[in-house]
């Protein structure tokens, strides 16, 4: 049972922030044997994600040239992946 709880906690920490908030709201309603402990752990994870998000926004506002460079790199990589899929993978699937 403790291993299952550890795995569930790891999965919860990896979840995107909106899903974390949904699970936190559900967990606040469901009764549990140790009230408050799991909610505290969940709130720490949510606050850590919010803090990281705010730090990222602050960094991107400070370094606008890097933001533009990252967006351009993302666009180029996306186009390269689509090109690879269309020219290499799709013909293999069709034939």
Describe the structure.
The protein is mainly α. Helices cover 87% and strands 0% of the residues. The chain contains four helices and no strands. α2 (17-29) packs antiparallel against α3 (37-62). The longest helix has 31 residues, at 64-94. The protein is flat and about 55 Å long.
Average per-residue pLDDT, rounded, comes to 87
Distance from first to last alpha carbon:
49 Å
- Overall structural class, as computed from helix and strand content, comes to mainly alpha
* Cα radius of gyration in angstroms: 21 Å
Beta-strand share of residues: under 5%
Structure characteristics:
single chain, 95 residues, mainly alpha, 2 domains, 4 helices, 87% helix, flat
Summarize this structure briefly.
The protein contains 4 helices and no strands. It is an all-alpha fold and 95 residues long.
What is the topological layout?
Elements: H1 2-14, H2 17-29, H3 37-62, H4 64-94
Helix pairs in contact: 2-3
